[in-house]
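Entries read sequence, tokenised fold; example below:

***
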Amino acid sequence: MTIHKFFALPLTCLLATLSFSLQAQNTAELWLTKADRSVLFSKQDVTLKFSTEKNNQPTILVNDKEVFQPIDGFGYSLTGGSAQHIINMSAQARAALLKELFATDGNNIGVSYIRLSIGASDLNEKVFSYSDLPEGQTDLEQAKFDLGLDKQDVIPVMKEILAINPKIKILGSPWSPPLWMKTTYDARGGMLKPEYYDAYAKYFVRYVQEMKKEGITIDAVTVQNEPLHPGNNPSLLMPAPEQATFVKNNLGPAFEKSGIKTKIIIYDHNADRPDYPITILDDAKAAKYIDGSAFHLYGGKIEALTDVHNAHPDKNIYFSEQMVVERPGSTAINITGPVKRLIIGATRNWSRNVLEWNLAADSENKPFTDRGGCPSCQGAVTIDKDQVSRNLAYYSVAHASKFVRPGSVRIASTEFQDLSNVAFKTPDGKRVLIIANTGKETATFNISFNGKMLATSLDKGAVGTYIW
């Protein structure tokens, strides 16, 4: 606004603008979930004010002068099974659900990051790749590559999602190469034959290119989902030395030759083996092609992500999967569990994103593959035809995804044992503080920012997101 236009404003309009600005700086809004389910991710009709008044309660100091990693987003895996349930809804019900999940206005939760399986995952109805051939046949140049079954559900659902949020980040992860590339002609287990490293690199290239033709830009790929877990169906054993060799000699050069800017992310497995990504990143010839490392938390401690960051601070950290489950019909919701472990834990340990597993299933957690699929993998939403119910994963991600938009940065905040928290500054200049009360009683405390304090409280087992 130029100076002459500023003074041309009517006095009442100018005063209203200044009043609104001051109010925005001195008040906060609260979105709350309580353990007893009496409040489930709901904006509270309360006035929370920052003031210069002091008290003796514990104080979380938020400091936006101390900045850590940028944030890419929060979300879920859109598995083939998820997409199958969503595409089978009526057009009206599907549109309403996708808006609720991916838009940011009103009570919509603003999911901003999605993970896709490259080929089938264990939450598909059946196993497939994009290059299924009879045993003994090969296709080294990927001339027969076809996105196949994904055209029936994953791709049309992704197109509807992109219509709502064209900037959503998309990560692709393979569970298994085509069977003809493996040491055993079986989707489960086995290893990638060295003579097919080049062919598999071309498979990745074709995936990125063919999805782009569908209007779907793949921001990043992981080299292999859970490379140390060959018991899943599908799956592949890929120890660190093999992954390093594949990246530096095949996948990295293939992306470079094809002009593909899609990021390459290694590991994509549990936090109990930080040595896996570190040893690969120690190889400078491999590291030059690698953007960072991805983690799950079915084993190990979330602090291992910081170990990898400290070993290679020039590389990014991502959190790509964690199953979050609650008992159907439970009278309580353990919202502090996943919020403390994942939303707060991963971002406090340098992760640029948090993805939970998975977006949608039915009441029996179907579909899943036989001989190694996951019968206990509950969706963030449960879909029964056009009826939708929301589960623990939905609410835990919502507390971050709606407010901590891509381009936000993590900022410093005081950590307390029973008031686990993490703070962010958003692209539009707001501060977001997510707090989980993991203690055994209601916690009364302060939030301090820029010399002023806000007095507030959270029931035991509650999660609050404060925005100002």
Observations:
- Confidence is low (pLDDT under 50) at residues 1-23.
- The longest strand covers residues 59-70.
- The radius of gyration is 23 Å.
- The CA atoms of residues 114 and 170 lie 5 Å apart.
